């Protein structure tokens, strides 16, 4: 009796398969060729745009001309005594070279975060490069209490130019270096 139930199960599966296959062949729009949905984003172009970086305005430069994490300054633009959750904090970064001169071009790679050591929470800031040595960092204030702003100069544009050159010639020898730049504590409720 068990071999008959096995045959019935196989026959049932074959009938279901044939019904499904015949539905796909005889349905009204079966003469049309399958067209996949158009992609919403061109991810290849997005990745290329993410890897784009501005070139140096001149080919030769001295170390003193590169962005200095010690000389670079920042200012809180919308400084208040008390901030509310959901507001934004704006920080203007003004890049300077090792001689203390204002940079006249952008392209430096900064990373900024707002964090609370007590709450063990952090958010990153959005950084806009104005292309003239100044950068606007915007943070959303998502929690009540104290928070600290940290801005790091990852690479100056001059270092990026060297890394791009080395990446193209010797990709296996490129490494990452991070410099701590600034710390600032604010309170908001």
UniProtKB/TrEMBL annotation:
Residue intervals passing through the bilayer: 6-26
Alphabetized UniProt keyword annotations: Membrane, Transmembrane, Transmembrane helix
Pfam families: Neurexophilin
InterPro entries per UniProt: Ig-like_fold, Ig_E-set, NXPH/NXPE
Domain of life: Eukaryota
The protein, known as: Uncharacterized protein
């Amino acid at each position: 009796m068990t071999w008959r139930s096995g045959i019935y199960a196989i026959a049932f599966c074959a009938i279901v398969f044939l019904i499904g296959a015949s539905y796909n062949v005889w349905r009204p729009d079966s003469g049309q060729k399958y067209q996949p949905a158009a992609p919403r984003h061109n991810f290849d172009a997005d990745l290329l745009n993410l890897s784009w970086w501005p070139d140096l305005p001149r080919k030769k430069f001295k170390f003193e001309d590169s962005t200095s994490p010690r000389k670079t300054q920042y200012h809180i633009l919308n400084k208040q005594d008390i901030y509310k959750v959901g507001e934004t904090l704006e920080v203007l970064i003004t890049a300077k070279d090792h001689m203390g001169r204002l940079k006249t071009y952008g392209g430096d790679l900064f990373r900024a975060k707002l964090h609370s050591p007590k709450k063990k929470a952090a958010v990153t800031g959005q950084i806009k490069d104005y292309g003239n040595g100044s950068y606007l960092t915007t943070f959303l204030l998502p929690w009540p209490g104290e928070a600290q702003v940290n801005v790091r100069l990852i690479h100056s544009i001059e270092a990026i130019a060297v890394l791009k050159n080395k990446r193209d010639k010797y990709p296996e020898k490129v490494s990452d270096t991070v410099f701590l730049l600034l710390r600032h504590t604010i309170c908001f409720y």
